[in-house]
Predict the 3D structure of the following.
Amino acid sequence: MKKKNFSRTVLILGAACATQSSVAAESISEAFTKGEAHLNLRLRYESVTEDQSAGENTGSALTLKSRLNFKTEAYHGLTAFVEMDDVSNFAGSSNDGVNGEISEPLIADPVGTELNQAFLAYKNWNTEFKYGRQRITLDNLRFVGHVAWRQNEQTYDALSVANSSVDKLKLSYTHISNVNRIFGEDSAVGDMEMDTHLINANYSFAAGSLSGYAYLLESDDNFAGFKRVDTDTYGVRWQGKTGIVAYNLEYATQKSSGDNPADYTANYMLAEANIDIAPVVLGLGYEVLSADDDGFFITPLATLFKFQGWTDNFVNRGLGNISEGVKDAYLTVSGAAYGMNWQLAYHDFNSDQNNASGGSDLGSELGAVVGKAWGPYSAELRYASYSAGDSSPFNGGGLTLIDTQKVWLTFNVNF
């Protein structure tokens, strides 16, 4: 699918919009007249400071995401959904991924208007089918996510099927034909054509839930970097709670496949616990994305901002890892006060394998966030500071880790 004209779609949405109804429509026309329209506005200021050898390199952007969507009322189990996003830039100077300002820090929120979602859904027999451009989020977003943090969301042209016929068991299958990446249609890497299969099963027990998955990624795109995503990943995840401790355990193995230029096998491991010691929650975690001599574990469809700190130093062109692998030991403290939620986070990074000089220190990051929601409004202030380790450069000299500071101020409103 290709993006559609924003203005024309807005007129269609406006004509179709009416009051909300919880009663299934009795005709196709009634499905539209009883549909719902929603508007979301997200204004964000982001600044980046990189301490390069030639001095500080700074960038900033003030952007607005305007999102308008419409969902029909169900007609014999069938619904339609369409959503448009527009990203505007009002101030600042940075590399947005498509403007050619490659000497400036990257703030990947390019200006543009796009069809974010457009799908038909059919629900019956405890099963939901979706066909079209859609949001896909699996488990904790570590392998498949929507990158909602960025102003231009990542969505998928796909067929998805979700079934809950068996009590406590949820099954899903998705075939992806294209990934609409955060860089937008004007970028050479804004779309990634695929022939990808995602299988996920989750069963709920009294003590927690167990997920098993198989993610078989294959890129149909001739762009050389995309062939690196051709991989088969199999894994299992346990999410449980005992007393005041909620914990996650996960293991996955990944092997190169298809036309991947590398030939490797690598592993993923996660152990994480959140301890509720009111009035705060203490979090401890250890995550490993391993590497071998020929390749490294990658997560190219993940919501990467959610992992390995907030400064995105290990994104590596969207692969989510570097050639030596990443070990991330982290500590979080979170709570609420005066109607606001807050969190402090600390990450200590080391490589899974030593680099060419024999080092493994990838540095550390300190982050803080405070946010408040009231009615349809929310606001958030976030800060992260990354200090490079003693073992840069990594990735065969292609990735030089440098001290980085980032600030985000975000306002959000829903109508």
